[in-house]
Amino acid sequence: MEETKWNTRLGLGWAEGLVAVLFFLLLHYIRHRHKHLISWPLLRELPSMIINFPRTHEWGTTILRAAGGTIAFRGPIFTGMRVVLTCDPCNVEYILKTRFSNFPKGPDFHEMFHELMGDGIFNTDGDEWQAQRRTANAHVHSKAFRDFVNKTSHQLSSDRLVPILRKAAVDGAVIDLQDLTMRYTMDAACAAVFGEAVGCLAPELPQVPFVTAMDEAQQAVVARHVLPHKWWKVMRWLGLGMEPLLARGVHTLDEFVANQVAQKRLERSGGNGGDLLSIYTTDVSAKTDNYLRDVAVNFLIAGRDTTGAALAWFFWLVSTHPEVEAKILVELKEKGTEDLRELHYLHAALSETLRLYPSVPLDHKGVVKEDILPDGTTVKPGNMLLYNIYAMGRMHWIWGNDCLEFKPERWLGQDGKFIPESGFRYLAFNGGPRTCLGKEVAYVQMKCVAAAVLPSFELQVVEGHEVLPKPTVILMMKNGLKMRVKERVAGNLHFPAKIINV
Ligand code: HEM
User: How much distance in Å is there from the Cα of 446 to the middle of ligand 1?
Assistant: First the structure.
């Protein structure tokens, strides 16, 4: 009786109920069958890709391990879709360096990102990219900029982030450390680009409209990736899906950046000079406002989420590896923070974090002319070429049998000094001519936070909190990083016995 009442209320008959149950069982079955790659009639590998999307990074690693480093997917018949996925360092070197000009980002990428990134360094290829790269390279590596980044990163970590953690420790509150590291890097990126932070780390942790606009615009552009090229254009035209969000976000962003650029132009003779916009505007070849807008947005996007996500994974790994934490603390005590370059162990721990949890887990390129990759895979114009940086850190044939372990020591020589990776097996900062321009800035920002936080606080993941990667362009934690903070009592560093004696 009760059952009939429910079915009637839901408008379901027995037949529909049965179909629903069968459908559920079928989905369940498919989900488990698709732990590996299965080719279906007509749809070919597309169902596998869709079903495994929520755990895309782990799944990509599993199938690449099984395939020996490279695999090709085909979309449904008649679509012509073909995706080549690789984590083979020889292939990646060939794509990013040896045959660099045959594998650009391509026109589809440019169009998809154009409203947001304009014609900035991230969104151009060929001569246009090269000219921008030359200018950006000079400015980012100038002494004025490096000193400015150093100063502002120290200030933000000690004067803004530490007080927030101290209050959480006193209140016994649970914090989302990932939210805090993202707030830190947003403020740090704005300081580096505009000369001042936007207040993300104010004590009340406010929602900053400019930051919300940037987040929404980025999400909307990412949503374009999962649609065929023509579809998102129609949706833009009709104002459907996330397209209005993108238009609104870009509008807010443009207004904010235009104000900053106008301000810099006014200050031109008397500005403090260390931030990127000041440096660009005092350049004799000072460009149009649009050019400066694109510089600012590209650098904000390049530097903010990448560094924020890396820091969250770093704190999680360190808090779950007390022996690593202890060694970082010893180094900080011995060497201080005057010269961050001297912190070799901390540098190794950050690099090891990015080996296992690269902020950009998957990157892609287009193909200009048909070519054969070093492992014999043929790639053709129209194919999508993906290199899986997340999987690269997890292949035993690249990093050895301990590849899944968090071991900063693998980066250190006998003398305890950091040995940089020269080959193409470590791609957290990309490789070849398009290597990340902000690597040094990122390490300074990350070291400043680690040096300010770790000696002062013990961080502990809240019991039962599950740390999982999110299937996003930047490798964030799906559920954030819920932690409890305890002020470290001086001298109470909880070193394991073997460390106390070193
Ligand atoms: C842990 C932090 C960071 C990581 C893991 C990282 C990683 C990367 C990666 C993988 C790329 C290549 C992206 C592509 O072309 O598809 C890249 C490019 C770039 N990064 Fe970073 N990045 C970080 C921080 C920064 C910071 C702080 C800045 C700015 C100060 C920055 C500036 C750039 C720029 C300008 C490019 C474009 C280079 C070009 O196309 O020539 N990055 N980064």
Answer: 14
Residue nearest to atom 7 of ligand 1 (CA): 429
Q: How far is the CA of 67 from the centre of ligand 1 (A)?
A: 29
Instruction: Tell me, yes or no, whether 72 lies in a domain.
Output: no
Residue nearest to atom 6 of ligand 1 (CA): 429
Indicate the pLDDT class of residue 2, thresholds 50, 70 and 90.
Answer: very low
Buried residues in 111-142 as b, exposed as e (16+ CB within 10 A): ebbebbbbbbbbbbbeeebeebeebbeebbee
Q: 309 C-alpha vs ligand 1 centroid, how far in Å?
A: 13
What CATH number has the domain bearing residue 343? 1.10.630.10
Cβ within 8 Å of residue 125, ≥6 positions away:
104, 105, 106, 110
**Atom in ligand 1 nearest the alpha carbon of residue 185:** 27
List all residues 6 or more positions away from 320 whose beta carbon is below 8 Å from its beta carbon.
461
Q: Look at ligand 1, atom 19, and give the residue with the nearest C-alpha.
A: 436
Q: Specify the pLDDT at position 151.
A: 95
* E-only strand ranges, 342-435: 362-365, 371-372, 378-379, 384-388
Domain of residue 246, residue span: 81-500
Number of domains in the chain: 1
Tell me the one-letter amino acid at 124.
T
Percent of the residues in the chain that have a pLDDT greater than 70, as a whole number: 88
Domain membership flag for residue 11:
no
Q: Are 475 and 336 spatial neighbours (Cβ–Cβ below 8 Å)?
A: no
Task: Indicate the length of the chain as a whole number.
Answer: 502
230 pLDDT band (50/70/90 cuts)? confident
As a whole number of angstroms, the distance between CA 398 and CA 386 comes to 18
Tell me phi and psi for residue 260, to 5 degrees: -65, -40
Cβ atoms of 304 and 186 within 8 Å: the answer is yes
Residue 152 covered by a domain: yes
Q: 43 in a domain, yes or no?
A: no
Q: Which atom of ligand 1 is nearest to the CA of 140?
A: 30
Q: What is the DSSP letter of 40?
A: B
**Residue bearing the CA closest to ligand 1, atom 21:** 436
Ligand 1 pocket, residues with Cβ under 6 angstroms: 121-122, 133, 136, 192, 299, 302-303, 306-307, 310, 354, 359-360, 363, 428-430, 434, 436-438, 441-442
